[in-house]
Amino acid sequence: MSEKAKSILEKYLIPALLAIALVAVSLWATKQRAQAQSYRTTVEAVYAQAYGELTDDLYELENTLSKLLAVSSPSQYVLLLDEVWRLSGSAVSNMSHLPVSHVDTAELNQFIVRLGDYAHALTKKAVNGGVITDEDSANIAKLRDSCASLAAEHEQKLSAGEIPTIGEDTYFVQAEESQYKDSEDIAKFPTLIYDGPFSESSEKLQPMGVSGAEVDQGTAEQTAERITGIDMTFAGENQGQIPAYDFSFSDESGNWAEASITKQGGMLLYYMSSAMGNAEGRPDDETGRKYRDIALAKLTELGYGNMQSTYAQYYGGVAVINFAATQDGVILYSDLVKVWVDRESSRVCGIDARNYLFSHRQRELPQPDVSREDAQSMLSSNLTVQSHAMALIPITPETEVLCHEFKCTLGKDSYILYINANNGREEQIFKIIDSEDGQLVI
Questions:
Q1: Segment 378-387 mean pLDDT
Q2: What pTM was computed for the model?
Q3: Given this model, what pLDDT does residue 214 score?
Q4: Torsion angle of C-alpha atoms 8, 9, 10, 15, degrees rounded to 10
Q5: Which of 50, 137, 335, 382 has CB atoms 3.0–4.6 Å from 97's, for a disulfide?
Q6: Closest to 318 measured CA to CA, from 366, 362, 383, 272
Q7: How far is it, in rounded angstroms, from Cα 280 to Cα 435?
Q8: Radius of gyration of the chain (CA)
């Protein structure tokens, strides 16, 4: 190679090749960092989800154990014990997705597994005719308190962001196996938190509360504007189980509204609009009654008679109040209407009548074969009865039963229990959770 060629090579080509190589290395490193970051994000999302679900499991275990102290019928007792066993399996499964360095693995894992095994042992005892002793109840109370403490601790860590990161040890909690392990995988159930008993009951196959002649779009629009007080625009037809006309409204200030009017009968199916309020937390009793009165007045104006408020929640500047229809003094929990009241303007800003329109009809209510006194005698002696009512509750989408509804307390905890008015069976139990946002029933 000539001197001139060497000079050109050294001056231009080699630097160019080095520059290309550096760019390639830089691009490769950038890609690797992006992949590493993506992996880190994915893994940490898995950690966060598992940690959050573990916390939910602990709260559910606390609530289920507390219900065990309130039931008296063997069938409900066995069902709740079975739920404790399933929840313990879910908690152990969630722990298996966490790095071993982040939680007190040995102690927590052992506690959860033994809790599940204890519940399973009590189930076998009850099924075989064994008597639940005071010692069993004392043990359940201790386990409930332990779960409550653990749940609060984990929720605090979750709120503070003290969840696992990819920088921690990447070996994981080994799920300790129960001696009662079933051949099938332990089912994982979602947490169901109700804003009132039966508020999420399954819709009927055919709506029974819709009646009257079919209305046209123009008539439905007039109905929507009369109910909302807003000039609405046609937004299409809804061909769901209850066919309806949909209408909407929005302006440059961010105000909006939506409404659905049934094709048959021209009835309000759903209405929601923007709220002005920024109020947070639970109001005092007098203010809460004011919101209920405003909501009830609106329902009466719309033709919903004999409605009784059941539960209320407060969030996002609004009060969400549940109303159930009544017939001859009996609460019809399937016939539910939810009403939203803007806490700042005291204006009804939303109504959901779907459950009501699916279920409402005149019932042939049976005479109770079990008196209030006999039904109350079937409650656990641990409970203190605060109030009583008669209620028709859904058992399946097509089946309802008449029950005695007892609102009770046990220490600081509150419950609602339903005793079948025909055979005295304990049909359902809910635990009432009082919070800053109102009452939750689980």
A1: 94
A2: 0.66
A3: 95
A4: 110
A5: 50
A6: 272
A7: 12
A8: 30
Class of domain 37-159: mainly alpha
**Separation between Cα atoms, residue 4 and residue 400, nearest integer Å:** 100
Give the C-alpha separation, 74 to 84, whole Å: 15
The encoded tokens of residue 197 equal 């008993």
Backbone angles phi, psi at 322, to 5 degrees: -90, 135
Which residue's structure tokens are 């104006």?
Answer: 301
What residue type is assigned to position 302 of the chain? L
pLDDT digits (tens, 9 = 90+) for 162-180: 765 544 444 444 444 444 3
Report the candidate in 56, 47, 265, 276 with the shortest Cα–Cα distance to residue 167: 47
Every domain of the chain and the residues it spans: 37-159, 217-359, 372-441
Yes or no: say if 299 and 352 are a contact pair by the CB < 8 Å rule.
Answer: no
CA-based nearest residue to 406, from 421, 424, 386: 386
Q: What is the DSSP letter of 186?
A: P
Average pLDDT score over residue span 285-301: 95
* Share of residues in the chain with pLDDT > 70 (%): 77
139 vs 24, higher pLDDT = 139
The structure tokens listed for 194 are: 């109700």
Q: Is the pLDDT of residue 332 over 90?
A: yes
With a CB cutoff of 8 Å and minimum separation 6, the contacts of 157 are: 51, 163
Q: Average per-residue pLDDT in the chain? A: 80
Measured between alpha carbons, how far is 155 from 153 in angstroms, rounded to an integer? 6
Phi first, then psi: what are they for 236, rounded to 5°?
130, 180
How buried is 115 (Cβ within 10 angstroms: 0-12 exposed, 13-18 middle, 19+ buried)? Answer: buried
